[in-house]
Design a protein that fits this description.
Order of helices and strands: EEEHEEHEHHHEHEHEEHHEHEEHE
Family: Belongs to the ABC transporter superfamily.
Subunit structure: Homodimer. Forms a membrane-associated complex with FtsX.
Domain ABC transporter: 2-241
Strand order of the largest sheet: 6-7-8-3-9-10
Distance between the termini: 35 Å
Structural class: alpha/beta
Pfam family, one: NIL
Protein name: Methionine ABC transporter ATP-binding protein
CATH architecture of the largest domain: 3-Layer(aba) Sandwich
CATH topology of the largest domain: Rossmann fold
Number of strands: 14
Number of domains: 2
Amino acid sequence: MITVSHLSKEFVSAGRNVRALDDVSLSVADAEIHGIVGQSGAGKSTLVRCLTLLETPSSGTVTIDGADVAGLSGAELQNARRSIGLVFQHANLFDARTALDNVAYPLEIAGVKRAERRARAAELLELVGLKGTESAYPAQLSGGQKQRVGIARALAADPKVLLCDEPTSALDPNSTAEVLQLIRDVRDRLGLTVLVITHEMSVVKTLCDSVSLLQSGTIVETGSVENVVAANGQLTRQLVPLPALALTPLRAGETALDILAVGEAVDRPFVAEASRIVGSDVAVLAGSIETLAGGRVSRLRVALPAGADVAAVKSTLVSQGAQVSDPVVSEVAA
């Protein structure tokens, strides 16, 4: 549904060229929920503007539903924009319009007749769980309700893609959980492709099927959540962190190993197997289990006793489906 190929964007700032996006490529399948994560300054805002055609890329292509939209203009550009529904960090509702009229606004701009657009808006408010709030003004709604109205408005023009820019960062935990569940429910019911821009790993854990890590304008990791975690890179440490307070300093001669398991491998007795190989109990320094994209992932940090055959332990555990690496001993938490 969405394919970004070799996308770059340069700006001129203080007389010099600044490359905000550098050869970005990613692919999002039909009805998939894909997360774009990265810290401030990583290029997320610029990527959003290029994907929504508010910025013209310096080079590269943005293809939505088989059509290259990056170079469009005029009426073709307006039509392409209607295929993308936008959900913002703040709902950005019109204070002087009711919930119904806020949802109907995109249809009003598109020239849809009043009766038809009001019927569509009422239908969408019911879809997002706000039946009965049609006459309420934004000041009468909670933060979570405002975001639901924002989602309904994004769906008004029957888009193929829903792009959510930090959709929950302004909400309390309960409202966050409700909005994330709503986004997944909307995807399931309407078959939309969803792109979520976020800096919150909890959003990726709860919502996303796949994820990309953006750093300094470049995609450095991308793939399904399960495959990205199994790669044991930066996103693994952020999505499946080890509890800092549980980490124990190594004693003289001990060697620490990190053991990562995904899916069915989570249930395998890796610690018992390591203990069998070294001939004594292996201490567990820290552990964490997460459910990501419907599957389980575990990380363990263990200490092998002095004199243990580290190579034999690593080789055996890898053959049984684990990812095994040497941690940085000086780390407090990874």
